[in-house]
Amino acid sequence: MKNPIFRVISFVILLAIMITMTFSISGQLFKFAAMVLTASSATELQEKEANKKVFEYANEIIVDVLSNDAVAFGISKEDEIKIDAYKNKLETLKKKDDVVGAYKLTEQAVKDANSFIKSKKLNPEDSKAKLFLEKNEKIYNSFKLLKSPAVELDRLGPLYRGLALLFTIACALFVLKKYTETKIKDRLQFLKKMIIYEALTAGVCVVLFPFFWMLCTAFKPSGQELVINDSNPFDIVPTSPTLNNFRRVLKIDDKASEMMKRVNDPIENKKHFGTYFMNSLLVSTTAAFLVTLFASMGAYVFSKKNLPYKSTIFRVLLMSMMIPGMMFMVPQFFMICKMGLFGTKWAMFMPHLASVFGIFMLKQFMDTIPDSLLEAAQIDGASEWQVFRIVIIPLSLPIILTLFLLTFLSNWSNFLWQLIVTDFENPLSVTLPVGLALFRGQYTSELGLIMSASCFSIVPIAVLFLFAQRYFIEGMTAGAVKE
Amino acid sequence: MAIRTTKDTVVSWGFLSPFMILFLVFLVFPIFYSFYLSFLGTPTDFSLANMKFVGVQNYIKIIKDYQFWSSLIVTAIYALINIPAGIIVSLALALLLDNKLFGKSFFRSAFFLPNILDMLVVGVIWALIYAPKFGVLAQISSVFLGENNFFNTTGLLGSPYTALLAVIFAMTLKGAGFGMVLFLAALQNIPADVYEAADIDGANEWQKFYLITVPLLKPIIFFMVITGIIGSLNAFTEIYAMTSGGPQVVIGGQALGSTSVAGYYLYKQFDAGNYGYAAAISYIMLIITLTITYIQSKLTAKKAGAKK
Question: What is the DSSP string of B159-192?
């Protein structure tokens, strides 16, 4: 272990692993960013038009200009073979619907057509040749104006690859510098740290891979979800991105609007993920608000008030937390039905408003608020409600916010209960998870659609987590640490 | 506030009443209501009104129901693999993170993130990753192993031997961050001089881990076991999203779902309209849960007593 050669060799190996990891991860991330940018730059019509026109222009240049017009100048056997090769290639690209390929082929064909005229040593002022060149250029100019996301992404290729390369080089240089700066006796420690970083990065990749794959697949055009990048099977970012999956999931694509004109069924038209998203948002926010209100009122009593049998009641509450939630499914369903709430938004959260966990968490916190503050407020003539509103609530605001977020979250993803009380015919009662389950049954193999529907549930929560991670992590682990 | 007055009591009940009413209506009453429902039969037309009183027949049916007992066994297997796997993975992550690292909070958040994401969506994504023919795993394995490999033909979720393990793998990755944060907090509370003392006594790294770290982490491990058991008994969404209880295996002439855990079986019975039967099953599950928690609390009480 103390051998310097061993140390250098392991450093080189670790550095190589680091460079590979950094390059592939940053490459995928930069490409993803470029992909989202290009996909959202074109409207559906532009995108469709562009993808159609690429092939039209390719056809025009290769079939019209190259093979038909060029014959007028007399072509050699060699040129004929070349033109045939172009035609064949275009056919295969058409079959594969490969927009980027067609684009590149056309660019090549335009250059070839120009050099063809030159090779014939025709006078460029010659009227026939002039016409030929002009036609060629005209098509090429309108061709360059096309706004196809796939082509745009291809154009950005050098940029995102260069950025990834630069980033990797910077990282490698940084590590090298640090290594040379480290004293010889500390270098083993340095190597250990590198191993830890690499293991953690690999772990993060494994844990977050499903979600990255979900995001990428959501941007893939229908029918091409399974196409693997030939050069690199691990490159999962789509090369021809599109927003069509999102448009279809939200029913704002052309096809659906045509259907809408024909059907014009207000209920059918609401069956999309925009509605489900709003339903989930409404249900979760209302539930979170009511739970925090009731729980903080209850916790106030348990923490600060003098109620007969207070501790007995509290113990009963805590015992009820031991009962598995499954237990309540059948009776609560019967109660909701008998109350006539089946298929309403109330049914989605009503049975979960009594949060014992919330009371427990808030009471723990309120116990730390000194009684003298309450007494001071009372002496100043504050009523009971005022003491609660002016003293208790502001002081326990962080924990109340935590409870709010956690309740929001649990209602956002409370699938089982929402599944059994949903009236599937009424889109106003379908929440996101239930909507996704229904949707998956309908489009079993359309990965792009399922994944873009999943985004509606995952992305908002991930963004929320980004801003309030402290509350989430501390709140969720609070119960355990108190043991 | 030391003197208890009638006014104080009234005010207290005023503050407590919204919560208590909801608690009594939606959490206490259902326990008794469920007991009543468990004596009712299956309505012919999914309606809630035409249910006849059938006495203890539901309970007799449970005793003879192979699928129910197999679902309990599956739940036990699920718990027995899932809980240790979760503890090991999250402890490993916590030990890795328990160093002076730049960007520690980033790693902590990144590992924690899957925890808060919707279980159904996570299940759906993993089901698509595992899927034969078009899943990610099938695609990548086809590149390296050729078309005719296990991942591409059957898929991990298609074989009764691997389906449950595949579910557990996905759930472990989803839940690892939670245990990791707990372990990390506990690790950072262990004073450094304990390890220094062990160093002086000539303990090696493994001995330090096994004799100091693990015993000091016991409360967390215990907590994770309890929540893991409750989680296994409540497991439903992950099974619904990934396997729907299948694939079936035939044991002794009975077709049993190899991933049909108790929670999923309960839902299936409920979905089929066997409301009374489902209520009876949930009662049996309640008794099982209470027994387990009772044994656990006895065990911990004994250990605590022995230590003193």
Answer: STTTHHHHHHHHHHHHHHHHHHHHHHHHHHHS-H
Strand partners, B251: B254
Q: How far apart are CA B189 and CA A429, in angstroms?
A: 47
* Residues A275 and A421 occupy one common structural domain: yes
Tell me the average pLDDT of chain A. Answer: 82
Owning domain of residue A423: 267-481
Mutation target among A249, A277, A326 for the B interface, most CBs of B within 10 A: A326
Do residue A329 and residue B270 have CB atoms under 8 angstroms apart? Answer: yes
Cis peptide before A266 (omega within 30 of 0): no
Q: Out of A110, A130, A147, pick the residue that ends a domain.
A: A147
Give every CB contact of residue B80 below 8 A, 6+ residues apart in sequence. none
d(Cα A300, Cα A288) in Å, to the nearest integer? 18
Rounded Cα distance between A164 and A154, Å, is 16
Task: Name the A residues in 349-408 with CB < 8 Å from any B CB.
Answer: 350-354, 356, 359, 371, 374-375, 384, 388
Residue B260 within a domain: yes
**What pLDDT is recorded for position B307?**
47
- Over 90: is that where the pLDDT of A284 sits? yes
Q: What are the residues whose beta carbons fall under 8 Å from the beta carbon of A66, sequence distance 6 or more?
A: A83, A86, A109, A112, A113, A116
| pLDDT(A483) > 50 | no
Q: Which of the residue ranges A58-62, A64-68, A273-277, B289-293 would you say has the lowest mean pLDDT?
A: A64-68
Rounded to 10 degrees, the C-alpha dihedral B44/B46/B48/B51 comes to 20
Lowest mean pLDDT among A242-246, A251-255, B189-193: A251-255
Is B30–A193 a contact, with Cβ atoms under 8 angstroms apart?
no
Please judge whether A462 and B139 are an interchain contact, meaning their C-beta atoms are less than 8 angstroms apart: no
Query: A65: exposed, middle or buried (C-beta count within 10 Å: 0-12, 13-18, 19+)?
Result: buried
Cβ atoms of A63 and A94 closer than 8 Å: no
CB contact, 8 Å: B301 with chain A?
A: no
Where does a domain end: A107, A131, A147?
Answer: A147
A404 and A287 assigned to the same domain: yes
Answer yes or no: are the C-beta atoms of A30 and A175 closer than 8 Å: no
**B5: in domain:** no
Reported as a single tens digit per residue, the pLDDT across A72-112 is 666 667 777 777 777 788 778 777 777 777 777 777 777 77
ipTM: 0.87
DSSP assigned state of A61: I
Q: Would strands B254-257 and B248-251 be described as parallel, antiparallel, or unpaired?
A: antiparallel
Q: Mark yes or no for CB contact A416/B290 under 8 Å.
A: no
- Pick from A122-131, A225-234, B69-78, B252-261 the range whose average pLDDT is largest: B69-78
In a domain, A363, yes or no: yes
Interchain CB contact of B34 with A (< 8 Å): yes
Q: Which of residues 95-114 of B touch A (CB under 8 A)?
A: 96-97, 99, 101, 107-114
At A298-347, the pLDDT tens digits run 998 888 888 888 888 888 888 888 787 888 888 898 888 888 888 888 88
The CATH number given to whatever domain includes residue B147 is 1.10.3720.10
Min Cα separation B188/chain A (Å): 13
Q: How would you write B185-222 as a 3-class SS string?
A: HHHHHCCHHHHHHHHHCCCCHHHHHHHHHHHHCHHHHH
Mean pLDDT, chain B, rounded, equals: 84
Full residue range of the structural domain in which residue B185 is found: 69-278
Are residue A275 and residue A369 in the same domain, yes or no? yes
Coil vs helix vs strand at B40: strand
Residue with tokens 């039209």: A56
Among A228-232, A260-264, A350-354, the range of highest mean pLDDT: A350-354
pLDDT of B173: 92
Q: What are B88-137's pLDDT values in tens digits?
A: 999 999 998 888 888 888 998 999 999 889 889 999 899 888 888 777 88
